[in-house]
Amino acid sequence: MSKLKIRVDQDKCQGHARCKSLAPELFELDDFGNAHEVGDGSVPAGLEDKAWLAQTNCPEIAIEVTEE
Amino acid sequence: MSDSPSESFLPEHPPVTDWVNDFDHTDPTWTEDPFPIWEELRAASPVVHTERFLGCYMPTTYQAVKEIAYDTEHFSSRRVIVRDVRPEITGKAPPITSDPPEHKPAKQLLLPPFTPDEMKKLEPRVRAICNELIDEFIADGRCDAAARYTKHIPVRAIAHMLGIPEQDSDLFIKWIHQILELGIKDDNELMNGVREMTGYFTGHLEQRKLQPGDDLISRLMQAKGRDGEPLADDHVLGSLRLLLIAGIDTTWSAIGSSLWHLARTPADRDRLIAEPALIPTAIEEFLRAYSPVTMAREVIKETTISGCPVKSGNMVLLSFPAANRDPAMFPDADRVVIDRKENRHAAFGLGIHRCVGSNLARMEMTVAVEEWLKRIPDFRLDPAGKVTWSEGTVRGPRQLPVLFGKNA
To answer: How many degrees, rounded to 5, is the angle at CA B97 between CA B55 and CA B68?
Structure first.
């Protein structure tokens, strides 16, 4: 199975925080409530569904999910 | 486009007969049930226009709403309410009335107190408020859930955050009614509400100049502007007016709509009681299907949106609720699907003006529904009563008579 990687586009993120709510293991929020990926964005095994769920629920389409 | 009316002229709002060319969001038909109207408008065009309100467009699709929300060059936020009159702009409420470049620094000041982590700290107080309210009516077996429950939760929560007395709630509710509902058609009501609210907050500012606190008002007073200097009193007052107005009517409406839905839909009620972990997902669907807030913009430069020409000098009714019902974006857009997995809804806006209070709203909605369902799992609309809806820019039930307990 290929590994997933997520990235939050900081220019697009507006702090809706849907990603943090749906996939708390994969995203962190800063002091302004804006999101970024945890670590280098590698998605641990078993959390792939959450990565996709976060991506499809971001109103700003700010989350990129790539498969390696 | 008509000339500006003189001060003594009160524009009329005859009942709408031609929605596609003459929409009116203050018309009783819209107030009662706007969803079929939006379907009709959307079928006609991605952007419709009315001569009412001195000329106003309405985007009807998610795509058109998004284009406008993202375009601060052609669409200014200097006016965010569609009204019958367009006087000189006097009352600013940063950042909602701010365009770039003023917008970002004004918004940055307000973001830190409203993060999800900050909301976790506030959650126990909100849960207590919900239960205090329920304690008052649970034995009666009936109540107006809008007047006795939903109305009070956001008022007390934002008052608590701001550091103003929760007991002053009735005053806040009065001003909001004057500004957001009566003020669309009656300029005097709008001005009275704004003046009284400003006077009230000025008093609190003066108090804290002598004795600073650690509440949100104090934080704003200690904040530094773009130039490194403390914010002008006008800026602080404008932001405080915004937080009070924005924090109350909106969330009150969203909680009310959620309970209205659950009162009419026993299957969804039963499911949420059996699976409380589904409540946050259901809240997102209630936000989509019953979005409370419609914003507005002023067209300052001519452009096209989804192929439709848009001329300057007009307002735009920026309907996030209509966008959220667009079947091109949401399968089964007109069905409330409480376990909807893909829900990229725009209830809190899109782009730079994303609602600062979205985390607070979500927390209040979730807790309000959780506590109600825990204590009043079985309830229905009172067939002898009437549900009434607010008029204008924010939509929610203003009377919600329900039966429960011995009357369930």
So the answer is: 55
